[in-house]
Amino acid sequence: MDIADAGKSRTGTPTTYDRFQELKTFDECKSGVKGLVDTGITHVPRIFLRPPEDLAAGNPVSGEQAQTQFKIPVIDFKDIAAGDRSGIVAGVRHAAESVGFFQVVNHGIPMNVLEEMVSTARGFHELPQEVKAEYYTRELMKKVKYGSNFDLYKSKYANWRDTLFCVMGPEPLDPQELPSICRDETLEYSRQIQVLGKHLFHLLSEALGLNHDHLEGMDCRKGHLILSHYYPACPEPELTMGTTRHSDPDFLTILLQDYIGGLQVLSQNEWIDVPPVPGALVVNIGDLLQLISNDKFKSVEHRVIANHRGPRISVACFFTPHLYPTTRVYGPIKELLSQNNPPVYRETSLKDFIAYYYNKGLDGKSALAHFKLLQ
């Protein structure tokens, strides 16, 4: 059966269903979810369907009252250049400890840089299939690659999303490895986002009561990845997800999202929308920062719902050395520990943490539980 038709026989009970073969067919097409949509499908293929037990269990969904009572914090950086940091540090501390998410405005990255990054990210994903296919791979160490669902063969169901994945540091990326349609814009965005990342890590260090350069000294900003996500319009969005609930395997994520929305954060057992704010960037704490802060900062679960509207474009910057070879191990910061605040996590290398995360896939469970010490 052609993968584009795989969902059309759902009303009956098929005598055979070779899920692996359908995944393989989808993978070998090298055209992603965008390629499926381009065929004119009117049903979601079976490999993308949330399983019955997942649908039956449901998900905590915020009601109108919760949405009006709680908002993702928006922090204004306009006074940071003037040295007025105390209020900003307090805002960052509150957001990192309680929500794990916040939005920043007046962050210093020009609006045209943001707009061009979104535009050229969309431009890449809308290139002819044969052009994009040259970048399609599941090779772990490849620095620039295009694909759909890094955990395709491990997840219970595939997500309605394609991704251009670029390792921008710590080793300088050869610009020629980037697709020409988004090369200059990605390099400029990378340069600008590193500056913002420096400010954020300084603020987060101060929010922990440490010297402003403490987290930088731990190489938290040493490397970063840029992931350009493309969520096509979905014919049956209630049956799948744009991105399954998860937390991020990094120190810090900065997200640029377009106007469509769909990002939700799990807070107090409610899914809270993170509405697009013109010119704002979304910041969230990653698993590794929760680990080294000994649970003081929270890496919270989030998801992206599928939508009839689309395509939705988002560009995520993950601050992590990722697979860069290093002997450094990470555990709770010694200066934060005391008799009343003993370590919650064991030490781990980045290699071991990433390996566990990738092998686990987006299964709706936090990777941090695996690294917790027995209390």
Automatic annotation (TrEMBL):
Keywords: Iron, Metal-binding, Oxidoreductase
Superkingdom per UniProt: Eukaryota
Gene3D superfamilies with a match to the protein in the record: B-lactam Antibiotic, Isopenicillin N Synthase, Chain (2.60.120.330)
Organism (species): Lupinus luteus
Keyword Lipid metabolism attached: no
A Gene Ontology molecular function term of the record: metal ion binding
Family the UniProt entry places it in: Belongs to the iron/ascorbate-dependent oxidoreductase family.
Protein name per the record: Fe2OG dioxygenase domain-containing protein
Pfam entry (one): 2OG-FeII_Oxy
PROSITE patterns, per the entry: FE2OG_OXY
Record-linked InterPro entries: DIOX_N, IPNS-like_FE2OG_OXY, IPNS-like_sf, Oxoglu/Fe-dep_dioxygenase_dom
Swiss-Prot/TrEMBL cofactor(s): Fe cation
